[in-house]
Write a structure and sequence with these properties.
452 residues; alpha/beta; Aspartate Aminotransferase, domain 2; Aspartate Aminotransferase, domain 1; 3 domains; 7-stranded mixed β-sheet; 13 helices; EC 1.4.4.2; Probable glycine dehydrogenase (decarboxylating) subunit 1; PyrdxlP-dep_Trfase; oxidoreductase
């Protein structure tokens, strides 16, 4: 095939093929396909479209208007947290056998990806202290939604109790999942002094119709929930499953879900950039007795006919092509490339490295809290509960003054909590003393303007 036969840099149709297609349709040109579109519509540009080079630089100029955490201190809490990802993670997941790997239905040609997913599952099980993990979901929120469906399948009950302060966006995803199954989602209040869940409210909400009790720890306010064993006991007494939402890095410091009585654990993966909030990775683990009700595929190790170790999809009951309407979920191709990144990231850190990272984040959290507490007119933290990575502070300055000051000093602002008249701060290992110094200066200026 001659090179000059191609008419587009990305589409492989030749002039001959285009001509044959037009003749078949009874047309003389492609323009006739759009003849019924008004000439002044958006599809007809008076100016010629930009070249690839011109378009690149146009988008580059637009991108400079964005603020990113490499150039600006990031203190936004309650969502995606920025972590340093070693360059080797990206290098490995860019390898052709991983980057282009689709759902690995044919184990004889996808051993590399299957082994990587098996290692990912093994690491998740070790971190959560649970028996089995699937090969991941799309997001933390979708993992939570699937957990509610799974609990409903197991005990046929129709109510999900959400304890205390949970991420509101995640809660919206849960409600969306619950809608289709006609599950009631009830959120209990939190302790206004500690920021943790209110046990009296929890006990009142959990009844014989409850299929699942859900708690996040650390919760939306960054408070590490104490006494999770008691929550498990309350749930199990009523025949409900207990689900814990976790931060993966924090598991190096705090009790894992399996040790506090959780039946299901859901969370968000690590090892990839936050990228404006996505793509993300939903982590899911459970106990062995529930494995056949668990959504998503499970990769297992086996032996081939020669006795050599190999990897296969052990369970794929979620698959529509296997069980149709009886499938345990409707997940198709998910974020498996991010599960690989997660596995590589954890392997690079190792057990001691993960613990050091968690300790650094914890140290930065309490350092930032204490620095803000030194300012007159600031209550930091607002809640008495023990915080990790996020915390709430109340600042006696107007929202407008604070936002202007944050912008002036190039700070990606904390999250505004209007109902509490407070701000939700988030930190990570990337937070430095210089960042906190700048934050203190910006808040000081806003406080001074408020006094004037």
């Amino acid at each position: 095939m001659e090179k000059d036969e191609f008419t587009h840099p990305y589409l492989g149709l030749t002039k001959k093929e285009r001509k044959e297609m037009l003749e078949y349709l009874g047309l003389t040109s492609a323009d006739e396909l759009f003849s019924d579109i008004p000439i002044r519509s958006e599809f007809h540009m008076e100016e010629q479209p930009l070249s690839e080079q011109e378009l690149f630089f146009e988008f580059y100029e637009l991108s400079k208007r964005n603020w990113n955490y490499l150039e600006h201190p990031l203190f936004a809490g309650g969502g995606a947290h920025a972590h340093y990802v070693p360059a080797v993670v990206q290098k490995i997941i860019e390898r052709g056998e991983f980057l282009t790997s689709y759902t690995p239905y044919q184990p004889e040609i996808t051993q590399g990806m299957l082994q990587a997913l098996f290692e990912y599952q093994s690491m998740v099980c070790e971190l959560t202290a649970l028996d089995v993990a699937n090969a991941s979901h799309y997001t933390y929120g979708s993992s939570l939604g699937e957990a509610a469906h799974m609990a409903h399948r197991i005990n046929s009950k129709n109510k999900v109790v959400v304890c205390g302060a949970v991420n509101p966006e995640r809660l919206e995803v849960l409600r969306a999942y619950a809608f289709g199954k006609k599950l009631a989602v009830v959120q209990t209040r939190y302790d206004e002094q500690k920021g943790s869940l209110d046990f009296d409210a929890l006990q009142s909400a959990v009844d014989d119709e409850t299929c699942m009790v859900y708690v996040e720890s650390p919760n939306y306010f960054g408070v590490v929930e104490p006494n999770l064993e008691e929550v498990a006991e309350i749930a199990h007494k009523k025949g409900a499953l207990f689900c814990v939402g976790f931060d993966m890095i924090s598991l190096a410091l705090f009790k894992p879900p399996g040790e506090v009585g959780a039946d299901i654990a859901v969370g968000e993966g690590v090892g990839f950039p936050i990228s404006y909030g996505g793509p993300s990775l939903g982590v899911f683990a459970t106990r062995k007795q529930y494995v056949r009700s668990m959504p998503g595929r499970v990769v297992g190790a086996t032996l081939d006919k020669r006795g050599k170790r190999g990897f296969v999809i052990t369970l794929q009951t979620r698959e529509q092509h296997i069980r149709r309407e009886k499938a345990t979920s409707n997940i198709t191709t998910n974020s498996a490339i991010l599960a690989l990144a997660n596995a590589v990231y954890l392997a690079l850190l190792g057990k001691s490295g993960l613990k050091k990272l968690a300790e650094r984040i914890l140290s930065n959290t309490h350092y930032t809290q204490s620095r803000l507490a030194e300012l007159k007119g600031v209550t930091s933290p607002l809640f008495k509960g023990y915080c990790y990575q996020d915390f709430v502070a109340r600042i006696q300055a107007s929202e407008q003054a604070l936002e202007k000051s944050f912008e002036k000093h190039g700070i990606i602002a904390p999250t505004r909590l209007k109902q509490l008249d407070s701000w939700l701060f988030g930190v990570s290992e990337l937070t430095t003393k210089a960042h906190v110094d700048l934050l203190v200066v910006s808040i000081k200026e806003a406080l001074e303007k408020n006094e004037v």
